[in-house]
Design brief:
PH-domain like, TBC1 domain family member 8, GTPase activator activity, seven-stranded antiparallel sheet, single chain, 43 helices, alpha+beta, about 1050 residues
Length: about 1050
């Protein structure tokens, strides 16, 4: 092993590999009983690692490596999935079963995690759908310090001994995230273009997606922004008079830089701000330099760029494209702007948009007639109009503001004053101190890069306002209801000026993004944005928050907020272990903190304090909310630990938050929505928001964007599966009282039903009949199956197996259950049908069978319904033998008529009469019964019994036909056999809108082809009751548990067989 490694590696690498083997193998060898097993295990492990290392090297090449093709062949042979199940990658590893490791191969495909092992003569196959995984985490066990644990509903499985565990875990995490969001969270989830077709996903695509998501989260860029390259380089930072080592990120519309030292220096350069990108002369001091010049007369010097020529070429192409799509118009009023806004002057302008004084094109460039028609947008921040006078003296208030403005002005001179500024730890400290009110709205625009959206879309907001105002719908009603609840204590929203601006922004955003529309808490956030920013600026700030900075927060299920709550729970356990230990159920704290995330503390803290939190949020993103939340809990840890219940904990936190003040605020204190909690007898101690924010950065500010995104990915699985469990429990809660199936069996049936839906999502092209899972629908309607899926399930779990006839019976059952004719059925209908089959009385089972052989279940075009059952047992000339002479036959017929009459009298009068069965339908009914008896232990006796009953019923039908044709239908044969179609009640088991009346086309068919030959349900039931063997067959207890166990084992293989059978005709056709 050492010699082999030495040929292709350094001594350092050899030592590294041997260290890995010692750490991962030696601890496990003690579980084996003899030396041969140990030798076999070690030899197999080393060979697998060498093979995997070779394959990973090949995988780095452009073409598909031969090793991967070999693995693909083995994957297909071992697991027999349909062709649509694409293998993404594979690894050698061990799967632990108790204390014993099983060496084998882990296959990661687009929908499943699979493991195969053939070790010590035993074969092991595991198939775990990604959509079943409830937890994916790195952990440790008794023998190994680093394993990957997969948790499903009932099991935990540990995998270890990977050559590169970090890579494996990241790929698993990406596959689980993509698959769960694609199948369970398609409400707002938009896949990257490269991942739109799951069958095309590769390992490289997943790695690119992970890098792309980190890039967008780190710089808080739009979701549609696609990362093109990441290059190591150094950037000249004039404030430190040196080159700072870091990485350059280039995307569709941005050039970004992040220093290797976290927080040292970040830069965001929108390409619309870039004037030129030039290569400079290469020297020993400045290797491969590139100069990026922007319109505010700044230049950024990057050096040590690899592949400089191709990088600059691609950047120039994108630069030209950006300027072609959004042409830049220079404004001649620079001098005036410099005088009015010395801090924010920039030569970067687009139309009438300027960084110093952003004017709205819709109010300047439109004609006078349009001005009269369109609503007048508010031209300035509301706080400048509705400025309140505080308790402090004006001189003191202005002096504090001037000091802050002076500090910011000095910073702008040294670090830049536009969106392209150098973002360092120094600016973070300035933000934590509180942004001056006169600069707050402008800086929010710069930090969030909403200013780029604003400048890139002149007139967009004005047009949206015109299109959306005056339209009435559910969203606008919700907005109107919440308008006067938005900061009602502030004078800006106590008059129509503020209310009208708020209405326009919220309505315009709902019109722009109907997927989100309007959610509660958006009104509070937008109110604050309008206080410090102009109306159009506030709109683009709202866009930045909802679509970039708080993704998936504002939708039907607020998944994003719930994910961050779950992340917050883990951070509490990590940073405040004593509090976490005392509060056994952290979900109570998480529920209290929901409003912290949804409103950025605006609804639970005095406004003048909460806006300082929003300052930090716009600069640092969600990290600021996490660390401030931890600081709040730490400050109240003693009170929370002594609280007896959730209500007392809520009181402790509410009183604390309501007494957070901002000593530097120029305005008066504006209470929060929780002020009613603070009516104390004794004065409550006041906390300064600046101190709280400083503590949050010092004690809890070590969380990186990468760590937060990893935690979000981990907890999104938990949250989505929590929603799935809620859906399941609500469906079962409704269904359980209505059926006799045991709750544990119902749960198994639900899992089978859902898995059937999922398998079609995995491998079949989307069909218009069977839509994807829609979490916005009522619980019972979230999973529905079509006729093909139902047929598959019917074959697995129905006790009425009829050989080749089973599929036909399943299709008829589906038509019967599909009462609204949308070609989909829900779980409740499926289980109600099974309940009759397994637990119904004999008359209920016969009634169900009867209904399966009349319209709408049986149609003229029904498969196999046109061929009569050619069997001598169906002869009407066959004598009826009941142990009596033939002469007694007439007496028996009288006795049978009396039996039918008595049965009809006992029938529930409120139940709607079913249509009578024609001869064609009766033949199909008999055929089904014959098929059901096949391979039954009492098969011969049942055949004789059904032959006798069939012959009798055929004679009854002929008697009725003759009576009808002669017009002498007797009263005793008429009252009980006439359909009582006027009864208003529906059937108690299956709701059928057509019950009690035969459709017109069916009646015509019966009259024309078969005349008036009919039998009723009562005839059939009474006749079947005469044969004890038939009664025994329908009343014998049936075991659903064995069916369920068998279904769980065979559901995948049956689906695969069905799909391969469907593809055969296509192959034959292609060959022809």
């Amino acid at each position: 092993m050492t010699d082999i490694e030495a040929k292709g590696a350094t001594l350092e690498e050899i030592n590294q590999h041997w260290d890995w083997l010692e750490q991962n193998l030696l601890h496990t060898l003690s579980v084996f009983d003899n030396k041969d097993d140990i030798a076999s295990f070690v030899k197999g492990k080393v060979k697998a690692l060498i093979a995997e290392e070779t394959s990973s090297r090949l995988a780095e090449q452009e073409e598909e490596p031969e090793k991967f093709r070999e693995a693909l062949v083995k994957f297909e042979a071992r697991f027999n999935f349909p062709e649509a199940e694409k293998l993404v990658t594979y690894y050698s590893c061990c799967c632990w079963k108790g204390r014993v490791p099983r060496q084998g191969w882990l296959y990661l495909s687009i929908n499943h995690l699979c493991f195969y092992s053939f070790f010590l003569g035993k074969e092991l196959k595991l198939i775990v759908p990604w959509v079943d995984i409830q937890k994916l985490e790195r952990t440790s066990n008794v023998f190994l310090t680093d394993t990957i644990r997969i948790t499903t509903q009932n099991k935990e499985r540990d995998f270890s001994m990977f050559l590169n565990l970090d890579e494996v875990f990241k790929i698993m995490e990406q596959l689980a995230d993509v698959t769960l969001r694609r199948l369970l969270d398609n409400e707002v989830f938009d896949l990257d273009p490269d991942l739109q077709e799951p069958s095309q996903i590769t390992k490289r695509d997943l790695e690119a997606r992970a890098q792309n998501e980190f890039f967008r989260a780190f710089f808080r860029l739009p979701r549609q922004e696609k990362l093109h390259s990441v290059v190591d380089c150094s950037l000249w930072t004039p404030f430190s008079r040196c080159h700072t080592v870091g990485r350059m990120f280039t995307s569709d519309r941005y050039i970004c830089f992040a220093s290797k030292e976290d927080g040292c220096c970040n830069v965001i350069l929108p390409l619309r701000e870039v004037v030129s990108i030039e290569k400079m002369e290469d020297t020993s001091l400045l290797p491969n330099p590139v100069i990026v010049s922007i319109r505010s007369k700044m230049a950024f010097q990057f050096i040590e760029l690899k592949d400089r020529d191709s990088l600059v070429g691609s950047l120039l192409v994108r630069l030209q494209r950006v300027h072609a799509n959004h042409p830049v118009h220079y404004d001649t009023s620079q001098d005036e702007d410099m005088q009015t806004s010395p801090v924010f002057h920039s030569t970067s302008m687009c139309g009438d948009h300027k960084f110093g004084d952003l004017e709205m094109v819709s109010s300047q460039n439109s004609e006078e007639s349009e001005k009269e028609k369109s609503p007048r947008l508010h031209p300035e921040a509301l706080i400048s109009v509705f400025q309140q006078s505080g308790s402090q003296s004006p001189d003191l208030r202005m002096s504090r503001e001037q000091i802050k403005i002076s500090l910011w002005n000095d910073h702008f001179v040294e670090y830049g004053r536009t969106v392209c500024m150098f973002r360092t730890e120094k600016i973070r400290k300035l933000v934590a101190m509180g942004i001056p009110e006169s600069l707050r709205g402008k800086l929010w625009l710069l930090f969030s890069d909403a200013v780029t959206d604003l400048a890139s879309h002149p007139g967009y907001y004005g047009n949206l306002v015109e299109e959306s105002m005056g339209k009435c719908c559910l969203v606008t009603e919700e907005i109107e209801r919440d308008l006067h609840r938005s900061l009602p204590e502030h004078p800006a929203f106590q008059n129509e000026t503020g209310i009208a601006a708020l209405r326009r922004v919220l309505t315009a955003y709902a019109h722009r993004n109907p997927k989100i529309g309007y959610c509660q808490s958006m009104n509070i956030l937008t109110s604050v944005l309008l206080l410090y920013a102009k109306e159009e600026e506030a709109f683009w700030l709202l866009v930045a928050v909802c679509e970039r900075m708080l993704p998936d927060y504002f939708n039907h299920r607020v998944i994003g907020a719930q994910v961050d709550q779950s992340v917050f729970e883990e951070l509490i356990k990590e940073h405040l272990p004593e509090l976490a230990e005392h509060m056994n159920d952290l979900s109570a704290l998480a529920s209290i903190s929901l409003s912290w995330f949804l409103t950025l503390f605006l609804s639970i803290m005095p406004l003048e304090s909460a806006v300082s939190v929003v300052d930090c949020f716009f600069y640092d993103g969600i990290k600021a909310i996490f660390q401030l939340g931890l600081a709040v809990l730490e400050a109240n840890a003693e009170g929370l630990c002594s609280s007896k219940d959730d209500g007392q904990a809520l009181m402790v936190l509410s009183r604390f938050l309501d007494h957070i003040k901002n000593e530097d605020s120029p305005g008066p204190s504006v209470g929060s929505h929780h002020a009613f909690f603070s009516d104390d007898q004794e004065p409550y101690p006041v906390t300064d928001i600046a101190d709280l924010i400083r503590d949050s950065y010092e004690k809890f500010g070590d969380q990186s964007v990468e760590q937060i995104e990893h935690l979000r990915c981990k907890h999104r699985i938990r949250v989505l599966q929590g929603h799935e469990d809620t859906t399941k429990q609500n469906v079962l809660r409704v269904v359980t009282p209505e059926v006799s199936i045991l709750p544990e069996d119902l749960e198994e049936l639900y899992d089978l039903f859902k898995r059937e839906h999922m398998m079609s999502c995995y491998w079949e092209q989307p069909r218009p009949v069977a839509p994807r899972h829609d979490p916005s629908r009522p619980y019972a309607e979230q999973y529905r199956i079509d006729v093909r899926q139902f047929t598959h399930l019917f074959q697995l779990v129905s006790p009425w197996t009829c050989g080749a006839h089973t599929e036909i019976l399943a299709e008829r059952t589906f038509r019967l259950l599909d009462d609204n004719m949308d070609h989909l059925i829900e779980f409740k209908a499926f289980v109600s049908c099974l309940d009759v089959m397994y637990n119904g009385e004999m008359n209920e089972k016969i009634k169900l069978l009867y209904r399966l052989h009349i319209p709408p279940a049986l149609t003229e075009n029904d498969r196999d319904s046109q061929s009569p059952l050619k069997n001598p047992l169906l002869s009407t000339s066959r004598p009826l033998v009941f142990g009596k002479s033939n002469g007694d036959a007439i007496d028996y017929q009288k006795q049978l008529k009396q039996m039918i009459k008595d049965l009809a009298k006992e029938k529930d009068k409120t139940e709607k009469e079913l249509p009578k069965m024609s001869q064609r339908e009766f033949i199909q009914f008999c055929k089904t019964l014959y098929s059901m008896f096949h391979e039954d232990p009492e098969e011969n006796e049942l055949y004789q019994a059904i032959a006798t009953v069939t012959t009798l019923l055929l004679q009854i039908g002929e008697v009725g036909q003759r009576s009808s044709s002669s017009g002498s239908c007797s009263q005793e044969g008429g009252e009980e056999l006439r359909a009582s179609a006027l009864s208003p009640d529906q059937d108690s088991v299956f709701a059928d809108n057509n019950a009690g009346k035969i459709p017109q086309d069916s009646r015509t068919f019966t009259e024309e082809v078969e005349g008036d030959w009919t039998v009723s349900l009562e005839h059939i039931l009474a006749s079947l009751l005469t044969e004890q063997s038939l009664v025994n067959f329908f009343e014998k207890p049936l075991d659903i548990k064995s069916k369920l166990e068998n279904a769980k084992i065979n559901q995948y293989s049956l689906k695969t067989f069905e799909m391969s059978r469907q593809s055969q005709p296509e192959l034959k056709l292609n060959n022809v």
